[in-house]
Amino acid sequence: MRRASFLIVVLVAFVAMTVIVAVRALLPGGDEMAGRGERVLPVAVAAVPSVEFADVVEALGTARANETVTVTARVTDTISRINFESGQHVAAGAILVELTDTEEAAGLAEARTTQREAQRDLDRTNDLIARAVVPQSRLDEATAALERARARVASIEAQLADRIVRAPFAGIVGLREVSLGGLVRPGDTIARLDDTSRIKLDFTVPERFLSVVSAGMQVAAETSAYPGEVFTGEIAQIDSRIDPVTRSVIIRAEIENLDGRLLPGQLMTVAVRRDVRSHPAVPGAALTRYLDQTFVYVVEETAEGMIARQRSIELGRRAGTMVEVLDGLTAGEQIISEGVHRIRDGAAVEITREMRLGANGVMAGVAAGGSSAAQ
């Protein structure tokens, strides 16, 4: 019984001491008097920056050209001239390929001669009609003959135009797949033409995100071809139906690509950003937690020196190593950025290093004497 009573007393004393320590740690200024008698602790501090945060929906997308077409011939004939090189930028309407047109050119010359003869015959008939030498029916015949000649010329000119393959829009010509003198038929691929001045990025998101995405929202895309580089654009269209199998919807974003670095077919990681906002932010290393509360230590200057004050804050989203602060801090306040496990509320501190915080965390530190120390 004595042994059991002794254990109970020890347990009660331990619990009481734990409660006292916890209460003193939570109460502002609870350790101030004790801290005055303790040694001054060296600390690194940082001014709280304002960082841009957003709610993000992530997906994988495929890059597509703004406009793309397979260049092919309309008629069957041999190639007489090739006016482009693979990878060349061509203007809209530029002649890419010419097909052999010897027979059509001869026919056009004959048709134009016939048209000139019909025009001269019409002129003579008009003169004779004016002098009442020939009847009106002769004028009608001459006019019909001229119209037939003109139609014949237009028909042959259209046949010649079919033997000239032009670029329907400005863009980059892909690999050439024909050779001079080769026979091409309708549907045979001559080359592919892509307008990559603007990239259409198609990606799918689950239907539950339909309520949070809309046209005009900003997107940020990355590709393994350019590690660490972000390409920004905005949502242009949302598909009119949901896939009944995957229960997802296709979203199309557009990204400016004037330098032509992005190519159709590239796999890209897409992040749709909504509710973009700027809030104070702190690095994760500056946070301490107790139960369901989160704290930082704010450095205050008093008559007795620099004092660390524990302050409860409300957190939001995380961006890299920085955490959004919804309430409890304002941008510009100085917080202890490192070694917070050694600090207690009301402890006397000495600033030995000032850190500069960026959107991704600590960038650099400057010693109190003024020398720079890279982190």
TrEMBL record:
Q: Which residues form a coiled coil?
A: 108-159
Q: Which SUPFAM superfamilies match?
A: HlyD-like secretion proteins
One GO molecular-function entry: efflux transmembrane transporter activity
Domain Multidrug resistance protein MdtA-like barrel-sandwich hybrid per the UniProt entry, residue ranges: 67-189
Which species?
Maricaulis maris
Q: Where is the YknX-like C-terminal permuted SH3-like domain?
A: 281-351
Protein name in UniProt = Membrane fusion protein (Multidrug efflux system)
- Signal peptide limits: none
Entries under InterPro entries matching the protein = Beta-barrel_RND_2, MdtA-like_BSH, RND_pump_MFP, YknX-like_C
Cite the Pfam families for this sequence.
Beta-barrel_RND_2, BSH_RND, YknX_C
The similarity comment for this entry is: Belongs to the membrane fusion protein (MFP) (TC 8.A.1) family.
CusB-like beta-barrel domain sequence ranges? 201-273
Under the cellular component aspect of Gene Ontology, which terms does the record hold?
Answer: efflux pump complex
Sorted UniProt keywords: Coiled coil
